[in-house]
From TrEMBL:
This is Uncharacterized protein. It comes from Flavobacterium laiguense.
Length: 92
């Protein structure tokens, strides 16, 4: 099992589901969706459907690229450098 945390989303995926999800993300045509929703009021224009009919994940180009990088199962020993992690950290 894989537990994938991305932004405010959590995915619990089996090995087969993780591979399918990675393949799906690789096939998304970013330019198509940005053109299709260019007049949308939302900043995020790339939809990722879910099995729940009333829930769609919307991402922008940068988020999709980050998610693709995160689920890349080809090189499982990839170590991220601190500047590659776009995360707001608040020191108390």
């Amino acid at each position: 099992m894989y537990q994938l945390l991305f932004n405010n989303l959590t995915f619990d995926l089996s090995s087969v589901e993780m591979t399918s999800f990675a393949n799906y993300l690789d096939q998304i045509d970013i330019d198509y969706w940005e053109t299709e929703y260019k007049y949308s009021i939302y900043e995020k224009k790339i939809p990722i459907p879910t099995l729940q009919s009333n829930f769609i994940i919307l991402l922008n180009r940068k988020e999709l690229e980050e998610l693709r990088y995160l689920v890349d199962c080809i090189n499982e020993y990839k170590i991220l450098k601190p500047f590659e992690i776009n995360y707001l950290m608040v020191s108390n």
